[in-house]
Design goal:
Number of helices: 3
Order of helices and strands: HEEEHEH
Structural class: alpha+beta
Number of domains: 2
Helix content: 40-55%
Number of strands: 4
Shape: rod-shaped
């Protein structure tokens, strides 16, 4: 006996089920990505503002500060902490070097001497 196999309609229904399953999976991926992006945006919004001035410390916790930077200076080291304007001016007056790249002394209007 010659079996004609599944009908075209049966094959199309099978294809439809496969495509629906793929579509549901894609929609889950999109929903997951939207959640991740929303979390990333909330993290960005909750991030504190960058400080206006930075004080870069030496290699260990006991070494004196080495530079004063404008906040966001590309050359500020990882051992930098945010400070306020008066602290930056005081640090310069105490002899801590201004960063030669961002020139916080110029930004602060600090004239040595």
């Amino acid at each position: 006996m010659n079996d004609p196999g599944p009908t075209r309609l049966v094959l199309l229904r099978f294809l439809e089920r496969v495509q629906l399953r793929d579509l549901e999976r894609t929609r889950r991926w999109i929903a997951d990505e939207e959640r991740r992006e929303a979390e990333r945006q909330r993290g960005i919004a909750a991030r504190p503002a960058a400080p206006d001035w930075l004080l870069e410390h030496g290699l260990n916790g006991h070494s004196p500060p080495v530079y004063v930077h404008v906040g966001g200076c590309w050359n500020a080291g990882k051992r930098s902490k945010g400070i306020v304007r008066d602290e930056a001016r005081r640090a310069l007056a105490d002899g801590i070097a201004p960063c030669p790249q961002c020139r916080p002394d110029t930004e602060l209007g600090y004239v040595d001497g």
